[in-house]
Amino acid sequence: MHATLPLLVDTDFPPIARRRLETLQVNVGYVCNQSCLHCHVNAGPTRTESMTLETVQLVLRYLEASGATTLDITGGAPELNPYFRYLVHEARLRGARVIDRCNLTILHQPGHEDLARFLAAERVDVVASLPCYTAELVDRQRGKGVYETSIAAIRELNALGYGHEGSGLTLDLVYNPQGPSLPPPQAKLEADYKRILGASFGIVFNRLYTLANMPIQRFGSTLVTKGQFNGYMQLLRGAHRDENLEGVMCRSLVSIDWRGYLYDCDFNQMLGLPLRVAGRPRLHLRDAMTRDLGGNSIVVRDHCFGCTAGQGSSCSGALA
Ligand code: SF4
Ligand code: SF4
User: Fold this and answer.
1) In what order do the strands lie in the sheet with 171-175?
2) Which of 100, 148, 220, 228 is deepest in the core (most CB within 10 A)?
3) Whose Cα sits closest to atom 2 in ligand 2?
C-alpha cells in the first residue's frame, strides 16, 4: 500500500482549535469481517489490533472525567472486540449516548445473532454504511453478497424498532462516493434512499450521512496507483469553504486508538498524527484525565480539505 502522509504534509489548511469536548470516538480495534475498498482504517479479518479490558476501563474513566456526553464506538467492526458489550453497557450506565458504527454484516456473523437485540436493549444509536441503494455498487465497494446481507440486517433492526419515528431507536445510514468525486447533496440523496429502499424492501431509517472519501489509507493508495491522487486533492482544495471550518468534528470530538492514545480525529489516528498538547509528542488516556483540551490547536494536514470541501463532511454527515 502507498503511504499518503508524505503527500499531505505540505499544507496551507487554515489553523483551527478545539472547543468544548462533547464526543469520545473510540476505535476499539482494526479487526473486521470485511475488507472494503474505501476503508480508511485498512481494517480486515487479518488485523489483530484490539483494545484490552484495561484500556476500555480507562476510556470509561475518561468519559466521566472529560464530561463528554457521547461515546462513538468504531473499528474495524467494533463488535468484534471482546469487551464491546461491556463498554456499551457501562457507558450507558453512566448516562452517555452511545453510537455503534456498525457494518451491518456483523449482525449475521456466527456468534453475533443476538447483537441487534443487545443494541436495542441498550438503546444504542446505530450508524451503518450503505454506500448505495443498488446491489451492484455496494458489492463492488464492500464485497460480494454484502448488499443482500446488509438489507437483511436493516430489516432485522427495523423489526426491533430502529428507524421508526417515535421509537427512540436511531438508525442512520452512511453514503460515500465510489470514486474520486464529492458526495452529492445530502438531502436529495436521503430522499432517494428512503423512496427506493422503502419501495423495494419496506426499509425505514432516520438520516443519511454523506461523507467524502479521505485521500488516505486504502482509498488514498488506490488514487496513487491510478495516478488520481493529485487530481482528487485539487478537487477537495478547490471546493474548500471557510464556513465549514466552524463545524469540523475535531473541534468537539477526540479520537482514541486501541492502545489508548488520543488524536484530533479518526483520520489523524490512521495517519499516525497524535493530538499534540503542551509540546508532548502524544497523549495517553492515563495522562488526559484532568486536562481540559479546549483551545488546543488541532493537528491539520492536506487531507483536512476532505472535511471542508463542498457541503462539508463529518462523522455526522454534511456540515452545510
Ligand atoms: S466494514 Fe468498515 S471497518 Fe470494515 S473494512 Fe469495511 S469500511 Fe473498513
Ligand atoms: S481531517 Fe480531522 S483534523 Fe482535519 S479537519 Fe477533518 S476532523 Fe479535523
Assistant:
1) 208-210, 171-175, 125-129, 97-102, 70-74, 23-27, 253-256, 262-263
2) 220
3) 265
Q: Which of 222, 223, 171, 235 is nearest to 197 (CA)?
A: 171
Distance 158 CA to ligand 2 centre (A): 33
Q: Which secondary-structure segment (H or E) carries 221? A: helix 217-225
CA separation (Å) from 193 to 166, 183, 209?
20, 14, 11
Atom number, ligand 2, closest to the C-alpha of residue 253: 7
pLDDT at 37 > cutoff 90: no
**Residue 88: predicted pLDDT:** 98
166 dihedral zone (left: phi>0; alpha: psi -120 to 50; beta): left
Residue 160 neighbours by CB distance under 10 Å: 16
Taking CA atoms only, the protein residue closest to ligand 2 atom 1 is 304
Return the ∠ at Cα 237 (arms to 233 and 238), rounded to 5°. Answer: 115
Q: Which of 85-94, 215-224, 267-276, 280-289 is the least confident region?
A: 215-224
Phi first, then psi, for residue 159 (nearest 5°) are -65, -25
Q: What is the mean pLDDT of residues 47-65?
A: 97
Is the whole model's pTM more than 0.85, yes or no? yes
Nearest ligand (C-alpha, residue 44):
1
Is the dihedral angle over the CA atoms 206, 161, 145, 315 positive or is it negative? positive
DSSP 170-184: -EEEEE--SSSSPPP
CA proximity to 125, closest of 57, 173, 187:
173
- Cα 103 to ligand 1 centre (Å): 7
Ligand 1 centroid, distance to 291 Cα (angstroms): 32
Average of per-residue pLDDT across 171-195: 93
CB of residue 29 inside a 6 A radius of ligand 1:
no
Query: Would you say residue 114 has pLDDT above 90?
Result: yes
| pLDDT per residue as tens digits for the range 68-107 | 999 999 999 999 999 999 999 999 999 999 999 999 999 9
Q: How far is the CA of 248 from the centre of ligand 2 (A)?
A: 6
Q: Which residue shows C-alpha cell 483520520?
A: 267
